[in-house]
Write a structure and sequence with these properties.
heterodimer, A: Four Helix Bundle (Hemerythrin (Met), subunit A), B: Transcription Regulator spoIIAA, 4 helices, 38% helix
């Protein structure tokens, strides 16, 4: 799996969201290198952690968009919900048959979503958040 | 890794020792979750002077605590992190997000 490194082009102009995203990238990188990739229990624990982390991040992002009066919040939330459904579906497949999906596949799904979501959807709320932050100063 | 919790007046101190990594996820979460139900506890301090290793998942765990503590209306402080731990935390700009105290 080719790992994507964080760089400033991923910044959405908000310290907390950038930190969430960066930790997401770093954790995916760390988990994709863990040595016990045939240990199903170890993989399951990592999937659960990433799902929990993703859910926290998406919730925080939705709160921020609401505060910034981002007009396309419903559309954005729908992409979040679709991602959570995809993650839960992967987890369900893994729970039913741990050999049906590899740790690399799961990490790749998360990384691909993160890269495309930040570059696409997240960048669109950036001006509204920056405007709100500017008004607060 | 050992996790010790001490409650004093309005602050609860969770002392982490050893490797703060993915393996302590559940224990760390259990430690702070028990404090959320204590109205007298207004601040949760994470004492890190004995942490000798910190991974990205630990940053994620601290971020989960940061988010949930806000919902529970508790403050969070990170105490006495070593310069090595600070370097790792600065990957994600923790000094702009958390209250960080050294020498307390």
């Amino acid at each position: 799996m080719e790992l994507v490194e964080w760089n400033d082009s991923f910044s959405v102009g908000n310290v907390l969201m950038d930190a969430h995203h960066r930790i997401f990238f770093e954790t995916i990188k760390e988990f994709s290198k863990f040595p016990d990739k045939n240990d199903h229990e170890a993989i399951r624990k990592r999937i659960e952690f990433l799902i929990e982390y993703a859910a926290m991040h998406l919730g925080a992002e939705e709160r921020l968009m609401r505060q910034a009066n981002y007009p396309d919040i419903d559309e954005h939330k729908a992409t979040h919900e679709a991602f959570v459904r995809e993650l839960l579906s992967v987890k369900e497949s893994f729970d039913k048959d741990p050999n049906s999906v590899t740790a690399d596949t799961i990490m790749k799904i998360m990384q691909d979503w993160l890269v495309h979501h930040i570059a696409g959807s997240d960048k669109r709320y950036m001006p509204y958040v920056q405007n709100m932050q500017g008004s607060a100063h | 890794m050992t996790i010790d919790i001490q409650v004093r007046d309005h602050a609860a101190r969770i002392t982490m020792s050893g490797r703060f990594d993915f393996e302590v996820h559940r224990d760390f979460k259990n430690a702070y979750t028990t404090l959320f139900s204590k109205p007298a506890v207004r601040e949760i301090e994470i004492e890190m002077s004995k942490v000798n290793y910190l991974d990205s998942a630990a940053l994620g765990m601290l971020m989960l605590l940061h988010d949930r503590a806000k919902d529970a209306q508790k403050k969070v402080s990170l105490l006495n992190a070593s310069s090595e731990a600070m370097q790792v935390m600065e990957i994600a700009n923790f000094s702009k997000i958390f209250t960080i105290k050294i020498g307390v």
